[in-house]
Amino acid sequence: MRKPVQEPSSEDTGGGTDIAALPGGARAALEAVLMILDQPASATDLAAGLNLTVAAVEEMLLELQREYDGYTVKAPDMEIASNAGFTSTPRGFELRNVAGGWRIYSRAEFADIVGAFVLEGQTARLTQAALETLAVIAYRQPVSRARVSAIRGVNVDSVVRTLTQRGLIEDSGTDPESGALLYRTTSYFLERMGIGSVAELPQLSPHLPGLEGIEEFYDAGRM
Known about the structure:
Structural class: mainly alpha
Helix content: 40-55%
Largest sheet: 3 strands, antiparallel
Strand order of the largest sheet: 3-5-4
Radius of gyration: 26 Å
Number of domains: 2
Distance between the termini: 80 Å
Order of helices and strands: HHHHEEHHEHHEEHH
CATH topology of the largest domain: Arc Repressor Mutant, subunit A
CATH architecture of the largest domain: Orthogonal Bundle
CATH superfamily of the largest domain: Winged helix-like DNA-binding domain superfamily/Winged helix DNA-binding domain
């Protein structure tokens, strides 16, 4: 039976915050960090960030992994396992060691449920105005906010900020003539659209007669 890891004190880790005095101790501190990671972190990086030894972190990672997997034991070891924090019910998430690091993921068995929830939330947050602005940027990139506003006929500053925060568009430098900031779609946009490049976007000109003159109209308006 694996023995619970002995949590280092501030003296063991070279001073600073007394991890052992925090609610749940070192294991809880490690768990808190794992919950906010957006990419795998190695045991060495986690140990450095928490001011713990690598050996202690590696053992706690294995304990947390076993706990999330619903580690089960039979009597008379049940009481020992309970004191160590192990449970008999798997969690909806798991701790994986992938790409040279550790990170918490939702379990593969719940992929359909999680995917439907995430997609539904994203669709609700992406308004019609955002979709229209995104379409203009996708077809006219690199393009400035002023040009997008001219095409849509409304101010798009807040929508552009939203699309940037969502990772769908990004800075593409500045216009050499006006100095205006230009925007383009991101690789994440291509991923969400399921295409390899913007060249694979459907052609809109056959469905939008008169669109070919929008650039001349916009340029005339600046004179």
